[in-house]
Amino acid sequence: MNALLTQNSDHVDYKSLSTSANGPMRTQVAPHYVGITVFPASSETATSELIYHWHCLLRNVQTTSGFNLLSQTTGSIEATRTALNEIRKLSGLTWEQLARLFNVSRRSLHFWASGQPLSRFNEENLNRVLGTIRYINRGGASINRSILLNPIKDGTIPFDLLVAGRHEEVKQLLGSGNVPQKQQVKPLSPDALASRMPQKPEELIDTLHDPIHREVGKSRAVRAVRSRK
Amino acid sequence: MVANDKQEELVQKVDAALKEWHQGDFVLGEQGFVYRIDPQLPLTEASLDAGAEGGELVESMVRGFVVVTQTCDIVRSCSKRPFVEVVPLTEVDEQKLNEIQRGRRPQYAFIPGCKEHCLVADLDRVMTVEKAVIIGWERRSGCQNDQDIRLLGKALARKRIRFAFPDDFVEWTKKLQEQFQKKHDKFSPEGEALRSLREIRVRAAPSWNESEIELMFWFIRHEEEVQFQGTTWDTLLQQWLKLIPPSGRFQFVYGQVATLEEITARDYVESDPLDFDHLSH
Fold first, then answer.
1. Are B149 and B110 spatial neighbours (Cβ–Cβ below 8 Å)?
2. Within an 8 Å CB–CB cutoff, is residue B139 touching chain A?
3. Measured between beta carbons, which residues in chain A are less than 8 angstroms from residue B154?
4. Are B264 and A141 inside 8 Å of each other by CB?
5. Do residue B143 and residue B20 come from a single domain?
6. Staple B88 to which of A16, A70, B25, B62, CB 3.0 to 4.6 Å?
7. Which of A130, A199, A223 should be substituted to probe chain B, the one whose Cβ sees the most B Cβ atoms within 10 Å?
8. Which of B75, B80, B61 is nearest to B25 (CA)?
9. What DSSP state is assigned to residue B113?
10. Is B178 found in the same domain as B131?
């Protein structure tokens, strides 16, 4: 098995599954993910279905050293998902353009971005594209999109080179963006975050519309005085 | 001249008194809520009685009023903005108070300062009063902090600014709505997932008015929740999308589960929140 597992207990929450009502059966992963690649050794042309079964197999394995492969696998999927979303946000490319770039349907891309495991080939390609986009990043989605889609001197369109997998050429043609790191902003307090939360879907579903008794105290007719203005 | 001076004095007096008032502040005690009726078509007992007397207005006594006008408009000079909106306070039992506090009854708004009296704001009834009326009221603070004020603002907004989705969309999403209704309180992967969604948004392109529309559903989740009893988000997404297959005007249907970090500001502003409460009633 060609497996590169990176363990970093500072970043990954290795919670195992729980069935208590209080501790829901969710696997939680901290916001910072560790890049992990899990490849089956047998085939270079593994289909995403095969990889998916491989992931399912890994989900049920807990090693004797207590190393929980489930969390690692989940972490890997999360890393891939995050990578695709970063490509979209950085490149400014549309879903259709990204689908062309990866030679898949737009629908498949949405599933990838929602956490569907990728084939080894697609995972590698995704990371290469991310590396290239990060390298040429000029600091904004619209400018990045523009330099990728506009023809350069000899009429070459960098996006076409990306589609053809010629990443080094794209890097050479467009050069490094050298964008300074984004200023980290102080996070809001939990109370401030909570007050900005929209009404949750589960609460909207549960909305009650039956009338509560309307308090109408003693009532009387009052006369309106018409305004002439 | 004398009249002008007196008027100016009154304006100053009202403006000074109103400086203390904020949205959500309230007055307790018997107050008259006035509303218009058609004496020929009375809908309530009160309007039946008033109509018999030939009146077109009814004054019914309520337990107090909450000011719902925004604070910036309350404190603007009454020479330019002479009115404020108030809604009556109504008494509810503790269970209903709790439901209203959690936003389950959008017809009412929870006013933290009224909690001890088991009173809530009845948003179905609104009355406009001149600001001078307020200066005779004993002000009680309704909201204690920024969070309370935001929650009240959300309750008021929810009552009035929900987007009206087209009827064919409402009909077409029925199966999805029913599924969510059935599963959201179940102890199952799907139930868990639904409870951990932050919000659901939908984008219609080019617009809701076109004869052929591309829809994009954004299921916005919290960052930490990755899977539920082994079921991953993409599996749930596939199940949900099966319930809304392309049909009628909605020929292209996409969906994605994403965190707030992952969607762009453009994705967010170009989409509308899917208000199941509004869709299903």
1. no
2. no
3. 198-199
4. yes
5. yes
6. B62
7. A199
8. B75
9. G
10. no
- Tell if the CB–CB gap between B277 and A85 is shorter than 8 Å: no
Q: Is the pTM of this model over 0.80?
A: no
- Contact between B33 and A215 (Cβ < 8 Å): no
How many domains does chain B contain in total?
2
For residue B4, give the DSSP letter: H
- Over residues B243-281, the pLDDT tens digits come to 999 999 999 999 999 999 889 999 999 999 987 765 554
Q: Is the ipTM of this complex over 0.85?
A: no
Measured between beta carbons, the chain A residues lying within 8 angstroms of B223 are 31
Low-confidence residues of chain A: pLDDT under 50: 1-72
B243: containing domain: 167-279
- The per-residue DSSP string of A104-168 comes to S-HHHHHHHHTT----HHHHHHHHHHHHHHHHH--SSHHHHHHHHHS--TTS--HHHHHHTT-HH
The pLDDT of residue A20: 34
Q: Which chain B residues have a beta carbon less than 8 Å from that of A141?
A: 264
Q: Buried b vs exposed e over B116-126: b needs ≥16 C-beta within 10 Å?
A: ebebbbbbebe
Closest Cβ–Cβ partner in A82, A110, A219 for B255: A110
| Residues in contact with B55: Cβ distance below 8 Å, sequence separation at least 6, in sequence order | A221, A222, A223, B37, B39
Q: What is the pLDDT of residues B196-232, one digit of tens each?
A: 899 999 999 999 999 999 999 999 998 777 778 778 8
- Shared domain check, B172 and B116: no
pLDDT in tens, A188-224: 888 878 878 888 887 777 777 777 766 667 777 787 7
Rounded Cα gap, residues B17 and B31, in angstroms = 19
Neighbours of A220 (CB within 10 A): 15
Cβ contacts (< 8 Å) between B258 and chain A: which residues? 85, 113-114
Query: Is B233's Cβ below 8 Å from some Cβ in A?
Result: yes
SS3 A2: strand
pLDDT single digits (tens) B154-166: 899 988 887 889 9
Together in a domain, B152 and B171: no
Nearest CA in chain A to B262: A85
Same domain, B29 and B123: yes
pLDDT of residue A206: 72
